[in-house]
Specification:
The chain is α+β, with helices and mostly antiparallel strands and about 425 residues long. The strands form six sheets. A six-stranded mixed sheet has the order 1-4-8-5-9-18. A four-stranded antiparallel sheet has the order 13-15-11-16, covered by helices on one side. A three-stranded antiparallel sheet has the order 6-7-19. A hairpin with a 2-residue loop joins strand 6 and strand 7. Helix 1 runs antiparallel to helix 10. The structure holds zinc ion. Zinc ion binds next to loops.
């Protein structure tokens, strides 16, 4: 049931009045450096304490903690918070998940300002974490605050989940929360992860491809180039291998899915290690790699079987030995249906707030939303951003911060 225009107008006015405060909040948050131990930091504890104080001051007193033990940090645990705003009924609960941790600044010489002392310039807030993932955190939190201050009770529970350890594997963050509390988030809940997006906010990410990196070590016998009959040319075998892999993989796994860009699976020969340093030597060893991005409805094991079959054929034909390795396999979680309630409601909100046409899309790499999908919970990734995650001079566009807050507010007061 769409919400009344009068109520949403009140919320948008309220949110506009938060603009300066949201910028200030971003600056304060940036000072609370939250680096996980894998990134050489002492965790998210201080940032979580800071947030708990602020959130309570906003009138949000229902905060649960799902802290994960981690002996490497001074407090011995990594904080995970759930801030709940009760609705008229609990279900379906609307969840927004944002992560508290950041990545290190990287080479500080590439920054024009101190990465942990955010500055405002040309409508942007510059600082490490301002976009990834503070924008999502601040926008969803201020949307909840707007509901409280306008005394608007949502129809169902609204929950903001603030997690640790997103940047270094999620073991102490969302993965821990979902595994140790299997009933917390429901298959019928609405889950939005504002940790990725595009500049006009039209992209609603619903699916990912599987990632398969394959390495090939081709072993022949090195000889002088004038005496090929005395050796086994690993380069020739590798060239045939690349062409066959390229042709057969594209033929066998040719399905197209318009949700993705590009719509098909991709099989790209990428790195080739250096072989011999001179022209008149036949190389006895070649090492090369393929980067494969596979549509989620194909089995990665089927693709691997095809690859191994082709490698065995080439090895037999050219009398070389071929060792196949997989430096990385990331199997995609099932896609969120483009018909799922979460896709409908966020799309309606985007259209209403920013008048751009929402587009459900799949991407070529993994995101944290996949962890929800693996538990059978449909989740989307959405935000309005230039996508500067992990780059020097990371920034958050202030207009986007305000706009996303309105989109969340719309979602929060609309029934699915
Ligand atoms: Zn992130």
């Amino acid at each position: 049931m769409p919400v009344s225009k009068e109520i949403f107008d009140r919320l948008t006015k309220r949110i506009d009045s938060y603009r300066d405060e949201m910028v200030e909040f971003q600056i304060e948050l940036t000072k609370q450096i939250a680096l996980g131990p894998d990134n050489g930091g002492d965790g998210e504890w201080k940032r979580a304490e800071f947030l708990k104080d602020k959130i309570t001051a906003f009138g949000l007193s229902d905060i649960s903690e799902y802290n994960a033990e981690d002996k490497r940090v001074p407090e011995g645990t990594r904080p995970n918070l759930v801030v709940r705003l009760k609705g008229k009924t609990a279900k379906p609960t609307v969840w927004v998940m944002a992560h508290m941790d950041i990545v290190p600044p990287g080479d500080e010489k590439l920054w024009d300002s101190n990465p942990h002392e955010a500055i405002v310039k040309d409508g942007k807030i510059y600082g490490r974490g301002t976009e990834d993932n503070q924008q999502g955190l601040v926008s969803s939190l201020f949307a909840m605050r707007a509901l409280i201050e306008e005394k608007i009770a949502p129809s169902t529970d609204i929950c903001l989940m603030l997690v640790a350890d997103e940047e270094t594997g999620n073991e102490y963050g969302i993965d821990y929360v979902l595994k140790s509390n299997p009933d917390l988030v429901d298959k019928n809940d609405i889950v939005i992860v504002p940790d990725g997006g595009n500049p006009d906010g039209s992209m609603v990410e619903v699916a990912e491809k599987s990632i398969l990196w394959c390495g090939f070590e081709i072993l022949g016998k090195q000889v002088h180039a004038s005496m090929p009959q005395a050796g086994i040319n690993a380069h020739r075998a590798s060239a045939h291998l690349v062409v066959r892999l390229d042709q057969q993989l594209h033929q066998e796994y040719s399905r197209q899915d318009p949700v993705f860009d590009p719509p098909g699976s991709t099989f790209e020969p990428t790195q080739r290690e250096a072989n011999v340093p001179n022209i008149n030597t036949i190389p006895g060893k070649e090492v090369l790699y393929f980067d494969c991005r596979i549509l989620p409805d194909y089995s990665v094991d089927d693709v691997l079987a095809t690859i191994n079959k082709i490698a065995a054929e080439v090895a037999g034909e050219f009398k070389v030995e071929i060792k196949v390795t997989q430096p990385m396999i990331a199997r995609a979680a099932p896609a969120t249906s483009t018909e799922a309630p979460v896709v409908k409601i966020i799309s309606e909100a985007i259209l209403e707030v920013s008048q751009v046409k929402p587009q459900p899309m799949g991407i070529g790499g993994g995101t944290v939303a996949a962890l929800f999908r693996k538990h059978g919970i449909p989740a989307v990734v959405w935000s309005t951003m230039d996508d500067l995650a992990h780059q020097p001079n990371e920034y958050c566009v202030i207009d986007n911060l305000v706009l996303d807050t309105k989109v969340f507010a719309y979602v929060f007061i609309n029934e699915s």
